[in-house]
Design goal:
alpha/beta, Chitobiase, domain 2, Alpha-d-glucuronidase, C-terminal Domain, 20 helices, 10% strand, globular, binds 4-O-methyl-beta-D-glucopyranuronic acid
């Protein structure tokens, strides 16, 4: 009977259907069977070139492709130029990796239905040039030695440390391929909360094995290090960065690493942050610490990515602290140090203003750290297209970057990211790291075409949905500049009331929302913490003035009265209620959108996403009710009568204790 249904299915659909578990990501090319295109290359056949040739031989449906290397095109970086005409396609790059990226571009264009002959008819050929804006496009894995992933929602780590180097999972290569296809060229394999063991010989051998697999895809390996490694694992009495023996220890360690991984990228360091060791433990500065490592790495062209995510409970407004700590060090770092700064001044919240360090540190290269994993955006349950949030950052920070990092959202789940649509965030990170001038619209459309269908009846509504999804989430979680209303231990659901006796104030929601009978929000104006003055003119004045402060950041910068007049004509309290309600309604609309396109996608992915949207809608209602009912205890105002009534009870919601395992 089963067989009969199966045959009937094939007969009716007339196509062979793959298992649609999401494992193929956006790389859903059909393999050439009858005919293999000719790929011409007269230069040296390196592993990267071989990858490029294989990809086109297997998946390019067009005629001959000729590869050319033109070393003179210095400013092309890793980019390429494609000249297409009816006879053959010429792909030129400055280096071998540019050819690989060009090969992926050809496949992308083919898959998304690009008309290669468009210009050809008129001008004889179509020319496409594509050059990256940024050199280092790096994923940061927060993967631990025991296989868990900090803030990971797609299962365990991809890296099987117990098996390596003897057993090599096929997913290592698939991972490298997926990254290369979107221009990512580096990966930090382990958590910034780093176990010193990662740089032991035992682990370096395993890491070298991964580096070998990634190399033909142009991906370099980097490691997070623990600042007290010399003491923890080197047997030295100290890890003081100015101590001669400590410096020598790092030099020897770096030498050992390069003997195993000749193209090793460098170190990522979280130091003197959230209890981790660092140079300040020895009365030294972040620059002293970073420069010691930089000196050891310099002979091999390695770099140090030193994180600026530092704050302490006794140093005033948390949003100001990274700036205060790092600005005085501007110009004091060695040239192979890059300061890695989270996009916002606090911590990957659903919406933050950009970190004022960007643009301010003029003598030190900075790289933004974006979070692809949805620590504060519904984990792998909520559909949130993060490109919208990142574009907001790029537009505001107005700086060119030589490097950019994204905290990865991949794990061993079959579909890699836990939610089919979370794959779009991995994709978007790569594309924006390559060129942050791309629009959300372009990226969303590209991804949808690659991952699902070229049918505009599918693309248009789904694109509208994903482009609205970040704002929708901000609306039902933390509108108007609110932030950090999360539950203490999982950062998934709401706990604006959370108050753990003895806990650090800056780890509790009340520190951020400051709700009282007068109003709500953190006063960061010149009459408050004065964080506004870390921004350049005229932004500082714009943020400082409640009349000109953008309303989507109002409560980030102001403690506004419940009766504050909003641009809509409503008072703040009512506006807050409307925003939460809007978020709920938006997600309900997403459910409708999805149901309408059911016939355009496979049943498996459809039902997975449908299921997740149900969770998201329930969660949106939970967020709305929790926040509004709690804040209502301060505002003492009714929820506007035109709006839906809460369906939860505040006291009941306070009892909810989530076991995050159910949300992975
Ligand atoms: O947002 C916080 C996270 C921590 C993380 C830290 C950081 C890796 O809750 O899990 O630790 O930021 O970025 O260092």
């Amino acid at each position: 009977m089963k067989q009969f249904i199966f045959l009937l299915f094939i007969f009716v659909s007339n196509v062979i259907i793959h298992a649609e578990d999401g494992s193929r990501l956006w790389l859903r090319y059909e393999k050439n069977t009858d005919f293999l295109p000719e790929i011409i290359f007269n230069g040296k056949h390196t592993p990267v070139i071989e990858t490029a040739i294989d990809e086109l031989k297997n998946y390019w449906n067009g005629k001959t492709v000729e590869f050319l290397i033109d070393k003179k095109q210095k400013n092309w970086k890793d980019g390429f130029e494609i000249i297409f005409n009816s006879e053959k396609t010429k792909l030129t790059a400055r280096s071998e990796i540019g050819l690989l990226y060009g090969a992926y571009e050809l496949l992308r264009l083919q898959k998304t239905g690009f008309d290669f002959m468009l210009d050809d008819k008129a001008a004889g050929s179509t020319i496409i040039g594509n050059f990256p804006k940024c050199d280092l496009r790096i994923l940061n894995h927060w993967d631990n030695i025991d296989g868990s992933v900090e803030r990971g929602y797609a299962g365990h780590s991809l890296w099987k440390w117990d098996e390596l180097p003897d057993i090599v999972s096929p997913r290592y290569q698939e991972y490298a391929r997926a990254n290369a296809s979107i221009g990512i060229n580096g990966t930090v394999l382990n958590n910034v909360n780093a176990n010193p063991k990662f740089i032991s010989r035992e682990y370096l051998v395993k890491i070298a094995c991964l580096a070998d697999i990634f190399r033909p895809y142009g991906i370099k390996v980097y490691l997070s290090i623990n600042f007290s490694s010399p003491k923890e694992s080197g047997g030295l009495p100290t890890s003081d960065p100015l101590n001669k023996d400590v410096r020598q220890w790092w030099k020897d360690k770096v030498k050992e690493i390069y003997s195993l991984i000749p193209d090793f990228g460098g170190f990522l360091v979280k130091a003197n942050s959230e209890g981790l060791p660092g140079p300040q433990d020895f009365g030294r500065t972040h620059a002293d610490g970073a420069n010691m490592l930089a000196e050891a790495l310099e002979p091999y062209n390695g770099i140090v990515m030193w994180r600026a995510f530092v704050y302490s409970p006794n140093s005033g407004d948390r949003a100001k602290q990274a700036y205060e700590e790092f600005m005085p060090l501007d110009g004091k770092f060695n040239k192979n140090v890059i300061i890695q700064v989270k996009n916002g001044p606090v911590d990957f919240q659903p919406r933050e203003p950009y970190s004022p360090l960007f643009g301010a540190m003029q003598k030190t290269p900075l790289m933004p750290e974006l979070q692809i994993t949805q620590e504060y955006l519904g984990a792998s349950n909520h559909l949130v297209f993060l490109a919208s949030m990142w574009k907001e950052f790029f537009d505001a920070a107005r700086q060119t970057f030589t490097a950019i990092a994204g905290v990865a959202n991949v794990g061993e789940n079959t579909n890699w990211c836990g939610h089919h649509f979370a794959q779009a965030n991995w994709y978007a990170f790569g594309r924006l790291a390559w060129n942050n001038q791309l629009t959300c619209n372009e990226i969303a459309e590209e991804w949808l075409r690659m991952t699902f269908s070229n049918d505009t009846a599918f693309i248009n509504p789904v694109k509208t949905m994903i482009l609205a999804s970040h704002e929708a989430t901000v609306n039902y979680m933390m509108p108007l500049g609110l932030n950090c209303l999360f539950a203490w231990d999982h950062h998934y659901g709401p706990e604006p009331w959370c108050n753990i006796p003895g806990a650090r104030a800056d780890w509790l929601p009340g520190y951020y929302h400051q709700a009282d009978s007068v109003g709500i929000g953190f006063n960061r104006t010149i009459s408050g913490s004065n964080a506004v003055s870390q921004y350049p003119y005229p932004l500082n004045e714009l943020f400082n003035n409640i009349k000109t402060c953008p309303e989507n950041l109002l409560l980030w910068f102001h403690h506004a009265s419940w009766n504050h007049q909003m641009k809509s004509g409503r008072i703040l309290w009512d506006e807050l209620c409307y925003k939460y309600q809007e978020g709920v309604e938006q997600v309900r609309d997403f459910q409708k959108t999805l149901d309408r396109i059911e016939n355009f996608i496979d049943a498996e992915r459809f039902s997975d996403v449908q299921y997740k949207l149900k969770i998201q809608t329930k969660d949106a209602v939970w967020w709305r009710d929790a926040c509004l009912l709690y804040f209502q205890t301060f505002s003492n105002k009714p929820i506007p009568y035109l709006l839906e009534r809460p369906v939860h009870d505040l006291e009941e919601m306070k009892k909810i204790k989530l076991n995050m395992k159910h949300h992975n």
